[in-house]
Amino acid sequence: MNLSGVLVPLITPFAEDGEIALAALEDLAYAALDEGATGLVALGTTAEVATLAPDERQAVVEICGRVCRERGATLVVGAGSSDTRGSAAALLALKDRADAALVTVPSFVRPSEAGVLAHFAALAQETPVPLVVYNIPYRTGQSVGAATLRRLGELPMVAGVKHAVGGVDQDTVTLLADPPEGFAVLAGDDPFFSALLALGASGGILASAHLRTARFAELARAWGAGDVAHARALGHRLSVMSASLFAEPNPTVLKGVLHAQGRIPTAAVRLPLIPASQASIDAVLRLL
Ligand SMILES: O=C(O)C1=N[C@H](C(=O)O)C[C@H](O)C1
């Protein structure tokens, strides 16, 4: 398993009849890996996972798993909920189907940081695959500070964190100054990818990397190699594109752009998301 470089959380393309466009999904998966991504994330937020039926989720994981196996790439699968027992059951179902699970900090419940730690400690005892904690307080309503993130990173089956706090705050700097041994800190807010790499993040899980995948991979390599001048300039350019992609709720703009490029059959999203405006889509197309 490789939790460095760029992992692409795939969108779920829909056909005219509203069903998943499986062939287009497979094409996106191959394209991401062939253009330099180290892995894929199936069933992330970007996949509109909340709207997918169980059989649809299974089909997505099967396609992503097959493509990753063929390419020798890492597959991370989104799993779990705000219910610890239910999350443990969902993780058991990933045995032999994923290299790692992306597990969001329990949302809406706001269990306290001690509760978050207890949740992941319980999951770490039962999970058959390593866990990547998804820390995204502006979606979950639960903040997790650097001290708790360090303790999470010391749990035996916790391999990393997808860190998406909407900026570069003191906890981010503190964590990256001294992460636990073998604990991968992955940027989860696309516009801050370059900034987190500069601070020592191992990579990122980035919806934006459906586009210009090779350049995002190049950015990770440039920071890793200490090529600061190149990394800084490239990072600024990609960050502008990422910010435009997130001008409306993810993945609505991204889907509009992929459709305009002819890579997916429709730009459709499922409610409660609504399609992005043409102005937002055009703004990204102008930057490509
Ligand atoms: O699905 C994901 O994983 C991602 N989701 C984030 C979000 O929608 O908030 C964005 C990030 O690029 C990856």
Produce the secondary structure layout:
Blueprint (H helix, E strand, L loop, with lengths): L4 E5 L12 H13 L4 E4 L11 H18 L2 E5 L5 H9 L7 E5 L8 H14 L4 E5 L1 H4 L5 H8 L4 E6 L6 H8 L6 E4 L5 H7 L3 E3 L7 H13 L2 H18 L6 H9 L17 H10 L1
Parallel strand pairs: 1-2, 1-8, 2-3, 3-4, 4-5, 5-6, 6-7, 7-8
Helix pairs in contact: 1-2, 3-4, 6-7, 8-10, 9-10, 10-12, 11-12
The structure holds ligand LZUJQKHR.
Ligand LZUJQKHR binds next to loops.
Order of SSEs: EHEHEHEHEHHEHEHEHHHH
Q: Under the CATH scheme, which architecture would be assigned?
A: Alpha-Beta Barrel
- What would the CATH topology be? TIM Barrel
Task: Kindly name the structural category.
Answer: alpha/beta
Just give the CATH class: Alpha Beta
**Overall tally of structural domains:** 1
Strand count, sense and barrel status of the largest sheet are:
8 strands, parallel, barrel
The spatial strand order of the largest sheet comes to 1-2-3-4-5-6-7-8
Strand residues, percent: 5-15%
Count of beta strands: 8
N-C termini distance: 31 Å
Mean pLDDT: 97
Characterise this structure.
This protein is an alpha/beta fold. It has a single domain (5-226), classed as Alpha-Beta Barrel (TIM Barrel). Helices cover 45% and strands 13% of the residues. It is built from twelve helices and eight strands. The protein has helices at 22-34, 54-71, 84-92, 113-126, 137-140, 146-153, 170-177, 193-199, 213-225, 228-245, 252-260, 278-287, and strands spanning 5-9, 39-42, 74-78, 100-104, 131-135, 158-163, 184-187, 203-205. Strands 1-2-3-4-5-6-7-8 form an eight-stranded parallel beta barrel, surrounded by five helices. Strand 3, helix 3 (84-92) and strand 4 form a beta-alpha-beta unit. The radius of gyration is 18 Å and the shape is globular. The model has no long low-confidence stretch (mean pLDDT 97). The structure holds the ligand O=C(O)C1=N[C@H](C(=O)O)C[C@H](O)C1. The ligand O=C(O)C1=N[C@H](C(=O)O)C[C@H](O)C1 is lined by residues 9, 41, 44-46, 188, 190, 205-207, 250. This is 4-hydroxy-tetrahydrodipicolinate synthase. Pathway: Amino-acid biosynthesis; L-lysine biosynthesis via DAP pathway; (S)-tetrahydrodipicolinate from L-aspartate: step 3/4. Belongs to the DapA family. Catalyzes the condensation of (S)-aspartate-beta-semialdehyde [(S)-ASA] and pyruvate to 4-hydroxy-tetrahydrodipicolinate (HTPA). Pyruvate binds at residues 46, 205.
